[in-house]
Design a protein that fits this description.
two-stranded antiparallel ribbon, binds iron/sulfur cluster
Amino acid sequence: MRQTSSGTILRLERSSIHDGEGLRTVIFLKGCPLRCAWCSTPEGWLPGITETETASYGYIMTADELLAEIVKDEIFFFHSDGGITFSGGEPLCQAEFVTDVAAGARKLGISTAMESSLCYPWQAVEKVLPHLDALYADLKHIDPEQHKFYTGQDNRRILENIRRVSDSDLPLQLIIRMVLVPGINDDEATLRQTGEFLQSLHNLTRVELLPYHRLGVGTYAKLGLRYRLPETKAPSQPELQRGKAILSQYINNIK
Ligand code: SF4
């Protein structure tokens, strides 16, 4: 079947080792409903191409054109058990395009993953899911009010979508990713509440605890945006280990 939809891509990153198994070609897509205070890709927030006086962010490709690019990396996928990962922005903003590309990649024997906040209507999630081998769901903050304060929206839809994915019988890996941000989501009460939620999920492959970082801060100035966490520092190894130790009381597989 010919793939015809088109999407707006922020950038392609080849041979990534941080976004799934093996070497991955990561497709960063434009558009996101959230505004996380620690976001490292604010240039991906707006849908479509973003133009500033000095830069242009985004370009349009058809699913066929993107698949032709992806196939160039096939040899790396083959030797590393890698594949493609949709990221963003929020890939679900372009669910039809992601579905077409993921289905096309699968037909070529290429493994597919998506990193998403799942802050999107379930209709979009269920359209994409059958074409994925792995879903990386980003959990920003377990408390609805805190989530709203730091991302612009509460987390009710996100938690519900995570639960629906974990309850589904689709043969895909569900990995929960959480960026540990000092002073925001690393206190004991928040981590324990997070642990209880994760423990209640039926099918959870693993949890990945990631340290907050300040990459991307410079882009805010270029876009004329204010970075909301000017004083926040990356967590130390002991702080990360402490977070992992608390979550480990609820779930086993934490990376
Ligand atoms: S969901 Fe991701 S892309 Fe969107 S604002 Fe948050 S960190 Fe940035």
